[in-house]
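A quick aside before the break. I want you to see a complete sequence-to-structure record at least once, exactly as it would be stored in a machine-readable document. Don't worry about memorizing anything.
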Amino acid sequence: MSQFEFVSVAASLVIALAIARLVSALPSVMNPKRFDWLHSIFAISLVLFSFQIWWRSWGHVEVESWSLLKMIVLIIPNILIYLCALFLVGEKPQKVRSWARFFDSSGQAMFGAFFATMLAILTRNYYLDGLLPGLPGITVSLACLAGMVWRNRVLWWAIVVLVDASFIAVIFREL
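That is the input. The structure line, written in tokens, reads:
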């Protein structure tokens, strides 16, 4: 087993926990009696973003020598995505009566965790790959910071659109 395979197992387990939390909550999130468009779109977006983080981790197969610090830098975004998932769907999603009210109360914490995730991804990309932060990453990071600071559903809609547009741009760039 190579060092990358060893490290990637830990990173994959953490992101799998985030995906499992989100996917297991989808029946509750999509329940018509509790449904909220903003929350639902962000939940689905976070599932797709989680897959993207997992998929892009393969790009680190070329790292020649792994250290504890490099492993931590690789895994921190995954841990933060798990926190985003926890803030987005809670510990007991089946008990949530209104996703709109739930998101209104937890949205700022979720955007704070997403802001931290973006910073961790930008740090990881620089530390492991030597890539300077690009405009999309900086823009999404600043938008999430705004979502953390201001509780405003119109702003949050704009952030969701921006995050999804950036996600789609990355997919098309990699085709």
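Two observations worth writing down. The helical segments are 3-29, 37-56, 68-89, 99-129, 135-149, 153-173. The radius of gyration is 16 Å. We'll return to this after the break.
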